[in-house]
Amino acid sequence: MQASITQPVDSESESLPTNSRSKVIIASLVGTAIEFFDFYIYATAAVIVFPHIFFPQGDPTAATLQSLATFAIAFIARPIGSAVFGHFGDRVGRKVTLVASLLTMGISTVVIGLLPGYATIGVFAPLLLALARFGQGLGLGGEWGGAALLATENAPANKRALYGSFPQLGAPIGFFFANGMFLLLSWLLTDEQFISWGWRIPFLLSAVLVLIGLYVRVSLHETPIFAKVAKAGKQVRIPIGTLFSKHMKATILGTFIMLATYTLFYIMTVYSLTYGTTAPPLGLGYTRNNFLLMLMLGVIGFGLLVPVAGQMADSFGRRKTMIGVTMLMIVFALSFPTLLGSGSTVLVMAFLVIGFIIMGMTFGPMGALLPELFPTEVRYTGASFSYNFASILGASVAPYIATWLATNYGLFYVGLYLASMATITLIALLLSKETRHESL
Prior knowledge:
- By secondary structure, the chain is mainly alpha-helical.
- It has one domain (13-431): Growth Hormone, Chain: A (Up-down Bundle).
- The chain is 78% helix and 0% strand.
- The chain has 21 helices and no strands.
- The chain has helices spanning 21-48, 50-53, 60-91, 94-114, 118-121, 124-152, 160-168, 170-188, 191-198, 200-218, 224-231, 239-246, 248-277, 288-316, 318-333, 336-339, 345-363, 366-372, 379-393, 398-408, 411-431.
């Protein structure tokens, strides 16, 4: 089943408490921004800090690989988080589950900033790091779906995609400030100070951000659409079971619709940073700080296009908008050797700007598109599971596949890999139905 079957909210639900537009925007945006900030500071630290702190020294390559393995743990945890938090989001409510997911992510992140290293507690250091990383993935797995539902279930029917783009802005904002924080610390501190204690600052700062996010979310009312279902006692007993037994087609289509978005994002961020800072002939040889600055400039385009794409999806339809953007992504993928492989700063910057603009255009409509595939009683679980299972198929493997292809065959095949993933997404979109006019 691809679209909501729940009846429209009637006059009875109009008496339920509602959230103001400004509160919906802030509450849906602030949580995802914090969650993605936490997620990205780990990604950066896993490359430049954790191999030296949490793993036995002697073989730098082995320590780096072990650190990256802990990074991947979160992608396994995210679908589990979508099932766990989705269960309570569909059974108990969006509001309380959003608070719980933010707490899970925030506590896990602060714990990482407090962990002693391998030199102090030995093998327990990487084990505790892996556990905290699992907590981060668990929290993020429950965060996105709840934030998207908070936005769309409070939105006017003709502005759902625009409202759904508000939580999507958390990704570029979180990425920008996470990388900016590490960049600032690298300028203010010596390498010794940064490795010794400076890297902990972003993780500990997360506690302040989480408190702000909790303050905003605790004051929310439940979404009127879920409140109506709860009042009627229409929640299903086991949402994940109902999802797989009655809405498997929508789940599969949602997963593959999200696939190209994840693949593009992690090629644009993780892989391009690796390629850009690797010495020639295997890379471009930029310093890490210089390439981080270029990435941060590119991400501005990402953020600007997210709400624009949401507005386009409201005006032209989710399916039509996403088909056009996905075809544009395929064309862009074939330009990798010309732009990224050129070695010219102007063309490399053009690659980043164009890629992130396309990223904003494909990411913006997702906040409405995925929730609209599912009825209210399994919407939290369904949207979250599709979104996060796609992260395993796309995000978790994209940097490794791209690196292997570039090393063995060249950049053209990295582009061909992205084009292949985009083609799968295009097929899923062609098999799906337009949901713009469906009632939540």
